[in-house]
Specification:
mainly alpha; 42 helices; transport
């Protein structure tokens, strides 16, 4: 069955594209015509010591890609395909893979490790290949270090691929024992130690029971802490990565070790090489993340028997932790502002300092202020930049009362620094810090305003001047202006920015035309700021906004550039309707031309803008539907770029609200596409909840005409509702998705009930009422407001038919009472309305 593939695999890596393409085509044909033979040939190539390492490595890579894919639907197909292969073929392939772990070629071993883990990820949950872990563990005791290294690497990958409940605790214990022994300083081979340390990182999720046992936990922690002192930098880095993971996974078990960990991390931050020092800082960032989450969730109200108490590790470490982090701020790199992906010790330290500020609030201020005061005027740019960065980092967390007096003193100094400091790094960080001041200490919720009539003009003048500076500084100045505008969002009919509106808009448009606007995200930042300035403007500037629309239309007409498109949707919503109508034809024609661009981002932005245009033009949007409909159809069928599909579904809702029953001629095609989307395994799951909501929008728009879709839509809603009820043992991500799904289902039911209200056809909905009442039983707090609204809609639309059902349903009464006693006034308000609707239904 197997075929000689060496030469084909080598040719597939040739420089000559003709040779390469021919080889790729040959491999593709072989795979399609004889999959078992193809996979056997690849595994045989990988295992054969006499073959060139290049062909072996590619054979392993193709084998791995035949078992896994990023797209869920493709992954599912590949898993099913593997499971349906003949058992003898699979056994032969697996034997070759295990044999390759003894290879002298490290690339072949490493590739085999990954493929074994992929096969394990498919087979172990199916209770297949039960002997794998035992076989790997027996390898660990073999003499050749390279076999031990490859086996530990495989165990690490395996732990990454499978979920913990697939492996029984006895095997978990044995894996952890093998891994921790491999990490031990008594293990003479550094490659083995490194593989073991990396394997532990992946195996930590399996160690719940072991971390609950004091003795086992002490042993694991001792070995990890010892590994942070290894002579090998890669081992030290991997050991700190384990500590970071332990910090987030086993936060509540850390108390006995936190003192030692502080000494280890502070030594690493001050003395070790950067990759190690970065992980040492990351440990404290992860502890901040844990404590922020706990304090947000529990509001700092802990009792002795709390499930997840906060140990206040950051608060305790504060006097020593803050000075250590402040030292790192002085370790900047010369070109860090120009490199978007830059990450170094100073940036990691500043990020951690910001998290510490969010964790401890006011307590951080007196520890950081002396550093700022000491360094802010120093001749060395590094000290000035570090002081500014420290200040900017602590602006989120402490109370406005604590920060406002300091900011009032500092603001003038910073505005001067932004224009006068000779160093670009200092100006960059100063502009960023001003943005943070405006983001957290400016706006309608802040009692003492930072920006006053006395300093507003100076602030705007400085920011507009800085937008002519180097691209990285100008980009941060745009960001500061963005938050300055946002703070005036709820200002009322008169905005302090109105006198400067024209000058601000002209400056931002000038920035978009700079030759270097492509650097440092500058053009994008300028357009985002323009959006925000317009969004937060008042009616006083309506005439200027209309002029701006014409300018942007000309820009779009001339360039149709991706970065420039998003500005349109904000403009459309800001302008009063009559003034815009004269331009809508031109705007719509431009948008239709945009769909000729082959860019998903552009299509997404154009769809959003058209949604906004539909909102503004209302029923008049009907005249654009014949030309626009084909693009709507394309969007609804765009499974691959699912964000475009999701946005298009949202736009269908916008158009329904704008056109109401004028959407009717298009409903058959739209509903067919939406139902097809829901049935597809290829479409990303995140698009499905908005589709259900869209059913509600359509029903609301066309009322009783939705009748012909009920027989298709209701079973879909019913099965999705049943699916959403089974979330036992789900992780946080799944629970969040389930609530989004439930919300979409509830919005569909609400729209359908409201659409049929006062129609003689309401009796068509009666058969679905018992199931809907049952669905309402299983609601989380997150969707309670929508759920109680649906109960009210059901009673309101079905009247006495619903009254008797609700009377018989104990759970519906309990649910209503729970909502009536809610502390959330919106839930309570909806519940009061639902109670009235139910009372009316019962008394009919």
């Amino acid at each position: 069955m197997a075929m000689e593939v060496t030469q084909v695999l080598l040719s597939a890596q040739a420089i000559d594209s003709t040779v390469r393409k021919h080889a790729e085509e040959t491999l593709k044909q072989f795979q399609e015509q004889n999959l078992p033979g193809f996979l056997l040939s690849l595994s045989g190539e990988l295992a054969n010591e006499e073959k060139p390492v290049e062909s072996r490595k590619l054979a392993g890579l193709i084998l791995k890609n035949a078992l896994d894919a990023k797209e869920q639907h493709r992954k599912f197909e590949l898993v099913q395909r593997w499971l349906s292969l003949d058992a003898a073929v699979k056994s032969q392939i697996k034997a070759c893979l295990l044999q390759t772990l003894s290879s002298t070629a490290s690339d072949a071993r490493s590739t085999a490790s990954q493929v074994i883990a992929k096969v394990a990820g498919i087979e172990l949950p199916q209770k297949q290949w039960p002997e794998l872990i035992g076989s790997l563990l027996s390898n660990v005791h073999q003499v050749p270090p390279h076999v031990k290294q490859a086996t530990l690497e495989t165990l690490g990958y395996l732990c990454e691929e499978v979920v913990p409940d697939v492996v029984d605790q006895d095997q978990v214990n044995k894996i952890l024992t093998a891994v921790v022994q491999g990490m031990s300083s008594t293990e003479g081979n550094t490659e083995v130690q490194l593989a073991a340390t990396r394997a532990l990182y992946n195996a930590l999720g399996f160690a719940q029971a072991n971390f609950s046992n004091d003795m086992e936990r002490d042993y694991i922690m001792r070995v990890v802490c010892e590994a942070t002192l290894s002579p090998e930098v890669k081992i030290r880095q991997a050991a700190f990565e384990c500590l970071v993971s332990i910090g987030s996974t086993y936060y509540e078990k850390l108390a006995p070790y936190i003192q030692d960990i502080f000494h280890i991390t502070s030594k690493a931050v001050r003395e070790d090489e950067e990759p190690v020092a970065l992980q040492a800082i990351e440990f404290w960032s992860s502890i901040c993340d844990e404590e922020i989450d706990i304090l947000e969730e529990y509001g700092g109200d802990f009792t002795a028997d709390s499930d997840v108490p906060c140990y206040y590790f950051i608060k305790q470490a504060l006097p020593a932790l803050v000075p250590m982090l402040l030292e790192t701020l002085l370790k900047q790199e010369e070109d860090q502002d120009q490199d978007e992906g830059a990450w170094n010790l100073a940036m990691a330290g500043g990020t951690c300092l910001g998290l510490v500020a969010r964790t401890v609030g006011d307590d951080i201020v007196p520890l950081v202020m002396p550093f700022i005061e000491e360094n802010i005027t120093k001749p060395d740019w590094r000290q000035r930049e570090a002081a500014t960065y420290a200040f900017g980092s602590i602006l989120e967390g402490p109370s406005p009362d604590k920060l406002t007096p300091i900011v009032n003193v500092a603001l003038n100094f910073m505005l001067t620094a932004l224009t006068k400091d000779p160093n670009s790094h200092v100006k960059d960080t100063t502009a960023w810090t001003l943005g943070r001041i405006f983001e957290f200490l400016h706006g309608s919720t802040v009692e003492t305003p930072i920006i006053t009539p006395a300093n507003c003009q100076q602030i705007i003048t400085v920011l507009l001047q800085s937008m002519k500076d180097a691209p990285n500084v100008a980009e941060k100045a745009c960001g500061a202006l963005y938050f300055l505008a946002q703070g005036y969002e709820d200002v009322g009919s008169t905005s302090p920015l109105t006198p400067y509106f024209q000058e601000i808009v002209q400056s931002l448009l000038y920035v978009t035309h700079r030759e270097d606007a492509g650097e440092s995200r500058l053009r994008t930042a300028a357009y985002e700021t323009l959006n925000e300035v317009v969004r937060c403007s008042t009616d006083e500037t309506a005439r200027l906004v209309l002029e701006l629309v014409q300018v942007i239309m000309t820009e779009l007409h001339n360039t149709l550039e991706a970065q420039r498109l998003s500005s349109m949707s904000e403009r459309s919503e800001r302008i009063t309707r009559p003034s815009l109508w004269v331009l809508t034809d031109q705007i719509m024609n431009l948008f239709l031309r945009v769909f000729a661009c082959r860019s998903a981002t552009v299509h997404e932005e154009a769809m959003l803008a058209i949604g906004a245009l539909a909102y503004v033009t209302g029923p008049n949007f009907a005249k654009y539907m014949p030309d626009f409909y084909k693009y709507l159809e394309m969007g609804l069928q765009n499974f691959e770029e699912y964000q475009v599909c999701a946005v298009t579904v949202g736009v269908v809702g916008d158009i329904c609200r704008a056109l109401e029953d004028k959407i009717l001629p298009y409903c058959d095609q739209i509903m067919t596409l939406l139902l097809k989307d829901l049935s597809s395994n290829q479409l990303h799951r995140s698009v499905k909840p908005p589709i259900f909501s869209c059913f509600g929008d359509i029903a609301l728009a066309i009322g009783e005409n939705f009748e012909k879709y009920l027989m298709y839509a209701m079973p879909m809603l019913q099965s999705a509702a049943e699916l959403s009820a089974h979330t036992a043992g789900a992780d946080d991500e799944m629970i969040e998705y389930t609530n989004i799904l439930r919300n979409g289902i509830l919005e569909a039911y609400s729209g359908i009930f409201q659409g049929f209200k006062n129609s003689p056809k309401t009796q068509l909905l009666i058969p679905y009422a018992p199931h809907i009442l049952q669905f309402l039983d299983s609601m989380d707090d997150v969707v309670m407001k929508t759920a109680i609204g649906v109960l009210g809609d059901l009673a309101d639309t079905l009247g006495s038919n619903a009254g008797s059902l609700i009377q018989q349903s104990l759970s519906s009464k309990d649910f209503l009472n729970e909502c009536l006693s809610s502390e959330d006034h919106l839930i309570k308000e909806s519940a009061e309305w639902a109670r009235l609707a139910i009372s009316r239904a019962i008394s009919v």
